[in-house]
Amino acid sequence: DIRIAHAKEIAQLDLDGYAVGGLAVGESHEEMYHILDVTVPHLPKEKPRYLMGVGTPANIIEAVYRGVDFFDCVYPSRNGRHGHVYTDRGRLNLKNAKYELDDRPIAEDCDCPVCRTYSRAYIRHLLKAGEMLGLRFCVMHNLHYYNTLMEQIRDAIAEHRFEAFRKEKLESLASGEDD
Q: Among 87, 132, 139, 173, which one is most buried in terms of CB atoms within 10 A?
């Protein structure tokens, strides 16, 4: 109720944009989506709506569905520094032993410089050896993945097919790791 009242009050100000913050700090994804469902409709539609500090790929897609326009999040870089990389089939932990001999790129359909050049096995080797290059590769890939995701979202909206995109992408993300 306080968030709704605040959104209504701040919407009366002619600001350049409006932020929703204080989410993704312990509540469930469903609770976060509920807060967005009841808060974002009270913010001006003609002004940018910003969701602060939120950002798994699924979170971003769901927030866009609820009217959010832009985001910031440490996930791509922080998780990359731990050997976690994002693909359309979910997050991979390249430190896992199952990638020791995996000669595939992080994501088969990714055209980032890392995926075009290096294998999961090589990146895993770098990570296990403590080589900073492995962390850099993971961050580079993740930033490319997130930028590509945002391009896909913008294209889907512009082409009036966001609903189908959302359904397909969320199903793919939930399907699990590339095995």
A: 87
Say if residue 41's pLDDT is above 70.
yes
Q: Determine the pLDDT at residue 177.
A: 64
Question: Amino acid identity, residue 62?
Answer: E
> How far is it, in rounded angstroms, from Cα 27 to Cα 153?
25
Question: What is the bridge-based pairing of β-strands 49-51 and 90-93?
Answer: unpaired
* 3 state SS of 21: coil
The residue assigned the tokens 């509920």 is 34
For tokens 């909206």, the residue is 157
pLDDT digits (tens, 9 = 90+) for 52-73: 988 899 999 999 999 999 999 8
